Amino acid sequence: MTKLSTIGQIAITVSDIDRALAFYREVLGLEFLFRAGPGLAFLNADGVRLMLSTPQGEGAVAANSVLYFKVSAIEAVHAAFVALGAHNERAPQLAAQMPDHQLWLSFLRDPDGNLVGLMEEKRF
Question: Which CATH class is domain 9-123?
């Protein structure tokens, strides 16, 4: 049976590549990789490539899956991103109590309204 492995790339549909690129680089601190023409830009999210693209075919701005980034000290990280200009969608809160950790989540929005999730597994 064939199995999938690590995610190699995630695509986000945005209305303005330059504006989105500034947000993901300057606010979220992702590493810029390259541009492929005026409608595509690529960033590195700790080994997973993030592709920013203007709508292609049936694509629509802000109609995407949620990106979840693992962080430490979720409260401080969330507050720092909001201070840098990210829209606060939901402050950090406990999402699930596990036997050996708590799962905490918070949400931000990029300039096009795409949800960006932050997650922390707080170990006991």
Answer: alpha beta
- Beta-carbon contacts of 121 under 8 Å, excluding residues fewer than 6 positions away, are 70, 98, 101, 102, 103, 104
Distance of CA 22 to the CA centre of its chain: 13
Residue 107 contacts residue 67 (beta carbons within 8 Å): no
pLDDT tens, residue by residue, 12-62:
999 999 999 999 999 999 999 999 888 899 999 999 999 999 987 777 887
Backbone angles phi, psi at 79, to 5 degrees: -60, -40
Interval 73-111: pLDDT, tens: 999 999 999 999 999 999 999 998 999 999 999 999 999
Rounded distance between C-alpha atoms, residue 102 and residue 59, angstroms:
35
CB 108 within 8 A of CB 82: yes
Report domain extents, the chain. Answer: 9-123
Cα–Cα distance, 10 to 118 (Å, whole number): 16
- Tally of CB atoms within 10 A around 36: 11
